[in-house]
Specification:
This protein is an alpha/beta fold and about 400 residues long. About 40% of the residues lie in helices and about 20% in strands. It has an 8-stranded parallel β-sheet. The two termini are about 30 Å apart. Bound molecules: N-(iminomethyl)-L-glutamic acid and fe (iii) ion.
Length: about 400
Amino acid sequence: MRGPVPRRGRALRELGIIRDGAMLVRDDRILAVGKRRKIERLREARQAQKLELGGRVALPGFIDSHTHLGFPCSRAGEYEQRISGKTYREIAQAGGGIRATVNAVRRCSQRTLAERASAHLREFAAHGTTTIEAKSGYGLDWTNELKILCTVQQLHQDQPLDIVQTFLGAHVLPAEYRTCADAFVDLLVRAWIPTVATAGLAEFCDVFCDRGAFSVTQARRILRAARACGLVPRIHAEQFARTGGARLAIEVQAASADHLEKINRSDVRALALSNVVCTLLPGCSFHLGLPLYAPARELIDAGAIVALATDFNPGTSPTVSLPMILSLACAQLRMTPAETIAAATINPAYSLRQHGRVGSLEAGKYADFSVFDVTDYREIPYYFGVNLCSLTMKRGVIIHSKKP
Ligand code: NIG
Ligand code: FE
């Protein structure tokens, strides 16, 4: 895959497949990509160590541009409650949901948090992902937001995957501020956001803008403050109710508007005319058992920039598997297999402002790629519920291999 960034409309399905291809890697970078015959003839290829992939499919490492990596335990009990008929909102109103994970984070040590996140990162790599975004947002007081941000920053140094950080102090109102929302927004705007930005703990700032979370007015204040401090806005928008978050994303020139299940036709047109990446998260509707998915076809056909991500989190989408998200995107969002691949590589790289380094297999970019045990790329979403990723390379180093 090479060519234009970001991908809109028809360009989303142009993968630039090279049959019988090869790639020459030196240190952490790609030196050349092309037909095997051509690559093997290059002078630098003569002393190269050969990694024979035997007719399998190699593609850019997946870029997961929406995850909530820092949490210590599942909410499997709530999963069972929902299956028995309780809604996500009812559980949240009864003190469960995001606040349950917040309580768990506040009780757990930095070490436990790091161990759980590392285990998850190994699984991301095993499913072909080489770069992820990670949001804070399960601390919701300064000590614990900092605990998540510092843990993840350390993990970025200590393990192979690249992690791009997003500050999500505005995930929900912490219980302490239930009756004084504006005081919490003041705290974010005046203290937390400037400190996170100055300390270099995040590149992006996100808000959960929805019914039961933050209003558009509150989100606007938060994202404007973030922008003023040099943090680029992202937003959770229009997942459970259409509140105007997508329009706000355009207004504040957010890098990404995520979810978008409830947008209407005019939102689709407005997003298509903008540079906001529409990050769709079909794992949520699947896991919550909800019938409504984002209008991916309309967005793509109107010319919007569409990306796919896991939304890995303990409440609505407990999966690290982008291949599974690709299967859901084909079946439920009616995206073609080719579109799902571009939406999980080059477009999310753009939304994380990493497209100069990753997201496609081109000379000069990092040697980040995954290999799947299939002979046709369409088999990646076609087979579901099984992990066919047999090798993952990150910056020239094999970080996952099924065969010894
Ligand atoms: O993206 N919507 C807000 N945040 C998560 C859910 C988090 C949780 O339930 O723990 C999401 O779906
Ligand atoms: Fe999320």
